User: Which sequence fits this backbone?
């Protein structure tokens, strides 16, 4: 699996993401700096990691979404490349309009940093096929702006099209319909607030994040084979 | 040299969008003993100094493309009268 991890000033989960991808896919991802204007290769997966890009100035993800490299990421998304945005990466993907809605300040005001139970809502996407629909998994969250907002029409559309990937199994941040992660209409872009890259080995307290990367690796092998 | 103008852009959350920060501010005002506050909504003020040949359409585009997130926010542009020669 040829992959890339984008790093913005203020990203802090880029290395964890790269380690998780390499551990599970067996191939080390390219590291791409935000100021690069183009992606030098055709990647199977581009990961937009967590952190506090540009200090969360203006709005979380707003500045990163307008950085030069994101224009290339948007083009790659349009041509079908898998794009995984985690935490700040999810915020960046909504700001870049690759995913609908917005991530607002947590309803409880506080930064939330803990393991949370999630319900897998979609087990047919290229990111989630190694899970089972309805399964409960544990993945850590660490965010201040994870409160997913979209219009009622948009929420109905997401649910109707099976594009809610993960839902919180308990109240975490006030997200509309407890949404923790969503897919775009084509199914090649996933944004999620929980950090799967932080649960890929037992030392981290759990391994429920592994199957995101297994799903991606497996789907790519199938389409290639 | 052109004339510059000062503009203010007020970015506010749309009606119906929950504002946890406004709620917290409201709660703090209550705690300080101020009564009679019915609701608090927080927003953002952006001041810019621009050349006067920058059109209203350009300013609208700046708001829509970056300064406001149109999914959750509205914006209002105010031109300050005391614009002075550059």
Assistant:
């Amino acid at each position: 699996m040829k992959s890339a991890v984008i790093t913005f000033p203020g990203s802090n989960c880029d290395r964890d993401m790269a380690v998780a991808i390499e551990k599970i896919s067996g191939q080390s991802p390219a590291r791409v700096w935000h100021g690069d204007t183009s992606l030098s290769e055709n990647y199977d997966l581009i990961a937009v990691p967590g952190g506090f890009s540009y200090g969360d100035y203006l709005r979380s993800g707003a500045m990163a979404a307008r950085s030069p490299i994101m224009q290339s990421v948007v083009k790659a998304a349009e041509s079908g490349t898998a794009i995984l945005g985690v935490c700040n990466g999810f915020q960046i993907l909504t700001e870049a309009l690759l995913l609908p809605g917005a991530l607002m300040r947590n309803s409880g005001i506080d930064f939330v940093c803990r393991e949370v139970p999630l319900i897998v809502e979609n087990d047919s996407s290229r990111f989630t096929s190694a899970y089972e629909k309805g399964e409960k998994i544990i993945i850590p969250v660490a965010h201040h702006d994870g409160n997913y907002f979209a219009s009622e029409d948009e929420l109905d559309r997401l649910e109707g099209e099976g594009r809610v990937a993960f839902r919180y199994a308990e109240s975490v941040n006030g997200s509309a319909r407890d949404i923790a992660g969503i897919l775009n209409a084509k199914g090649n872009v996933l944004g999620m607030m929980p950090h799967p890259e932080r649960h890929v080995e037992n030392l981290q307290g759990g391994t429920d994040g592994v199957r995101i990367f297994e799903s991606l690796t497996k789907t790519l092998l199938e389409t290639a084979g | 040299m052109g004339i510059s103008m000062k503009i203010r852009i007020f970015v506010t959350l749309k009606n119906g969008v929950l504002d946890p920060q406004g709620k917290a501010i409201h709660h703090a005002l209550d705690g300080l003993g101020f009564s009679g506050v019915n609701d608090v909504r927080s927003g953002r003020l952006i001041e810019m100094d621009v050349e006067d040949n920058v059109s209203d359409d350009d300013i609208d585009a700046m708001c829509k493309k970056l300064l406001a997130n149109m999914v959750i926010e509205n914006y209002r542009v105010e031109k300050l009268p005391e614009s002075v020669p550059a």
